[in-house]
Amino acid sequence: MISRKRLQLVLAIYFQTSGFAFVLLEHRFSPVDWGARDIGGPDRAKRCLKCIDALLALHTPDVLVLQDTTRRGTRRAPRIQELNHQALQLAKRRGVLVHTYSRAQVREHFEEFGAMTKQRIAETIAKHIPALDLYVPPPRKPWQSADARMGIFEAAALVWTFFQSSRGAPPF
Questions:
Q1: Could you tell me the residue range of the domain that residue 54 belongs to?
Q2: pLDDT range class, residue 76, cuts 50, 70, 90
Q3: Is the residue at 3 inside a domain?
Q4: How many distinct structural domains can be found in the chain?
């Protein structure tokens, strides 16, 4: 019988105005699951956390990667900061290591690919992970709001930054 050791599963969650997007990768180029959850209405924070808890229970990732929304990280709305913090606490209760990266750290990683905008980062990720190619939204016009699918690539960029930084940021 041949036994294969499971590779490290890394789940990234990126909070958006209308919910959150996530990507679960087994390796930098091996997606296991991904999607964007649109959660509106009353108690959306509570329902977001319930969905995230279900994802953690379903996939049992080894690492959760979130955006660094602290003062030294990336500026986000207070509601997003609170959701990020609650997701971090939820993962810690489940015994999942958590790493956070700022927007600047992600952009620094993608500089080597010549991708400095969200659109270029999404296209770079899709080029390396063909399964995500169908989800790249068209370039956004200045008068348009962001496409919810862009969150999938924001989450994937967080995972790539984690894998690229083998030392990683100190876990929480």
A1: 10-164
A2: confident
A3: no
A4: 1
